[in-house]
Amino acid sequence: MIIYLVIATIIFWGAYTKNPRFFYVLGFFCIFIISAFRDVTLGGTDALNYDRIYQQTPGLFNLTKEDLLSDYSVGYILLNSAIRTFSTDFRVFQFLYVAITLFLLYKIIGKLRLSNKEKCILLFSYFCFRLLWYEWVLLRQNFADLIFWYCIVSCYYSLSYKRKTFYIICSLLLPPLFHTSAFLNLLLLPMMYLLDRWSFSKKKYYVPIFSVLIYVLSSIVVNYFFPYMVFLGGDRYENYSEAISTEMGNGNIVNYILRFFFYFAFILNYHRDKSTNKDLVMKTIIMVIIIGSVNFSSVNRMYEYYAIGLYLAQTKLLSYYKQPMIRFAYWLGMLLIFGRFLTISAEGTFLNYSMWLFQ
Are 153 and 111 spatial neighbours (Cβ–Cβ below 8 Å)? Predict the structure, then answer.
């Protein structure tokens, strides 16, 4: 566990040095090293399953229609096939996958017009909250999330109507190539733009009210939308019917409260925030609050498509409140969250870190 906490600490406190740019790049480099060269078994049964998929996928010249129409999404199978064309070693795939996805994350953060200090804090926040889970375990959805983030951030900063339209179309069509859950954005993305039409006061008061109602009435909400999930996401979502009865009500209440905390901190400081990305944060963090209100653990996968707003709100907290004690409390609190995540996730395999380079 120590190696993760040390990297997180370097990224965070590097933000407050004279050269935060150096520590931001160093943070990405460290994350790349521990991810690309990690033991392929880290990540539990999911990681082993991805290894199996890779070994079963033929190279590009032997790829069949049946391979492409498997349960693992066309884009992901094509990525596997392209790499397996010249190497059957899953470690090569892992290395290239990490390089591609971290580069994409680097480009996304670069588009947000943050200072180097803010980039360090955002990377630290994402690293402690979710990065390893998606980078090491949920490989397909990680790719889908990053493509979606890239598209909505690019759309937000585009001045041309044609370019905005292009990025919206891409955000709806490209992520499903890697994970079928992205099809649900056909419903959720229009909802984001509809909610954005509300006045600030409505967003301030109505969103918490709707959130609590959804939380209390989660079983009704899920049962109502489940047929649409099956229609948009395919037959695999029929397997969730049993999970609905067993997992309903087991959402993480601590994460629910934390999301609200960062939402309110952002709302209270919205009018004095002079950044160019505050409206992007508003659009996306509302979606995180609304989707994350469904008290069903599997829903976490859906709000992650909009979680760039959550990580930006976390970053902004330390811009709003600059007292050293708050800075220290944020660092310590995030490390505690990170430590708990490492302990309970992926069957505890993250705790015994090892590299295939030294095996």
Answer: yes
